[in-house]
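Example record

The entry below shows one chain as it appears in the dataset: sequence first, then structure tokens.
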Amino acid sequence: MTGRPGSGRAALVTGASAGIGTELARVFAANGFDLVLTARRAERLQQLAQELENEHSIRARVIVADLADPQAPARLFAATREDGRHIDVLVNNAGYGVPGYFLTQSWPTHRDFIQVMMTAVAHLTHLYLPAMVESGYGRILNLASLAGLTPGAPGSTLYGAAKSFVIQLSQTLHMENRERGVHVCALCPGFTLSEFHDVTGARAKVSRLPGYLWMNADEVARQGYAAVMAGKPVHISGGVNRTIAALFKTLPHRTAHMLIRRQSRRFRVARPDTATET
């Protein structure tokens, strides 16, 4: 066990109960990291923790938390400190999408989304980063998206904006802390086979997209692990996604926006006729 990179170290993974979060937990466990797994679904977390302890001879603790609660990051930090366990790796993976146009969703819905996708990411980083700097070792992997590197699209209004924030935050933190032994990386997947599109109600539409656009969550996780360990500030998973990102860098703004507007109709939930109450 001592030959594994994570032996004697611990990783905290948010949103670990499904999708890329589960696969990231598996990758870190396979590399010898003890785990703190957090999400809202206790049963799933417990099953995953038991599986990874048995398979990789690591320790896995479960802490149920809803990051839509502004107090959740501080409570999570306090719970890990009570254990006396230093967190060497922070994986800010928790996230979801809100379907529909901006005014078709209530403000509390948008408020909770911003809390989970942006505020909690920054808050948890602010809490765990100082000890990483002090110890001279730390890894922070933030789940972003290809959507954060392309123009904004109609529907899921705040999603791309939140992912752009995560990318910029990760790049800046990486530059600020790389000389202190802390690597920060924004992982930018495209379409990934997971529960994400079931939650947003877009499964029927996205299922019509060609197979070459899709990646498996386990491959995305492996690439993310390798990228943050190698000190890459941003990693776009998959050659197709890297090509798409490069294309949008070269296109004139008007052309890029027109292309996004047309293509978004293929995978966004249709706009509802009436707005929800606020």
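Notes for this example: The first strand starts at residue 10 and ends at 14. The beta strands are 10-14, 34-39, 60-64, 89-92, 138-143, 182-188, 191-193, 214-216, 234-236.
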